[in-house]
Amino acid sequence: MEKEITSRLIYKHNKLIESAHRLSLQEQRVLLLMISLINGDDEDFKSYVFDVKEFAKMMGYKGQSIYSEVKKVTKKLITRVLEIEDLENRRLLQISWVSSAEYVEETGSVEISFDPKLKPYLLKLKERYTKYSLLHVIRLRSAYSVRIYELLKQVELFQERSFVLTDLRKLLGIKEDEYKLYADFRRKVLEHSIKEINEKTDLRLSYETEKRGRGVNKIKFLINSKGEKQKALPGLEAISNKQLYEDLIKKFNQHPSQAREYLKTYPEYQIAENLKHVERRVRAGEINDIGAYTRKAITDDIKDQLSLFDMERAQTRQHELEKKEEERLAAEYQNYKDQEIDRLKGSYSDELLAQMEKEAEATAIEKHGRGIGLKMMARLELHSKIAEENNLLSLEEWIEEQQKH
User: Fold this and answer.
1) What is the dihedral of CA 138, 139, 144, 145, to 10 degrees?
2) What would the pLDDT profile of 91-148 be if each residue is shown by its tens digit?
3) Which of 168, 288, 317, 355 has its CA 20 to 30 A from that of 221?
């Protein structure tokens, strides 16, 4: 079993990931090992049989009483209840992960079965699911690390996700009397999990906090991928806007056939505006079920509406940003030019440089007359002459070179 882990994948419906539940690390590992054995074309759950010794090793047990320890975990797992909300249809499902665990002492094995009502969330998933490698999560040593990894892997391509602190605690299964001080939560849950995820998985995380009054109200995770880029999606040749098509599937959890239908039915500019609205709400931590809300946003044409005042303010802000960027580039260019000219001065003899300084002063007097700023004007004339003789880049040429790199 241990050798096969590197190639196994986990497929979970996003509703499972977004459900609030509490599991120990060992219970998480049992479920992950079971889920990794599901084949993509399975119509129904099978009974998953494990060698108890090998199973215990995967769970992290190495002592003498492995049978009793594994039995404790499976017994506890049968009692664990998770709640799956279907907000669209106003339904709530309360369900156990595992329906039974049967031990056969003669063969040293255990046979475990999923609850049948989990079938829509683990079998034949076509949309609104998250995929990741078992190898990454099986190495994590904290149940909170596993949950945070799943919640952020789900929106990996958005590169960030925000949670209200109370909502995050609920999703992680943290009780009200646990880690009541934010400092304890930060140290024992947040920072410990981020450190472990960064060291052992394909994600690299950091976080920012938002305060309300004196306390932390919201946590924003920043997500970077360390793994290989995803392979190109099949059938792209017939798609006019390939980037929009890929975004619909990879970022917004839409099935390929549904993405094609959107592109046939709705104008591309409208879909792009709808997706901007969805992305803003996801980043703000207001949306959990990205796939469902994306469908609603596109079919109902939901997008951010700007008043005339907001549009004018946005335009003004854009002009301000552009002006600041121009000023920044001009300052950097001037720094580059001054450094190059100082370097080039060393290539001139003292006599030639003195002659050039006299000519620069004469040119400055001719253009501006004698005055307080004569020395500065003469210096500018000298620098201009050196730049011209040595073909230094102009501002426009320098900016173009910066953009290439």
Assistant:
1) -120
2) 888 999 999 999 988 888 999 999 999 999 999 887 778 889 998 898 899 999 999 9
3) 317
Copy the structure tokens of residue 6.
């590197």
Model pLDDT for residues 58-89, shown as the tens digit of each residue:
777 776 678 888 888 899 999 999 888 876 67
Domains identified in the chain and CATH numbers: 1-138 (1.10.10.10), 140-231 (1.10.10.10), 244-299 (no CATH), 331-404 (no CATH)
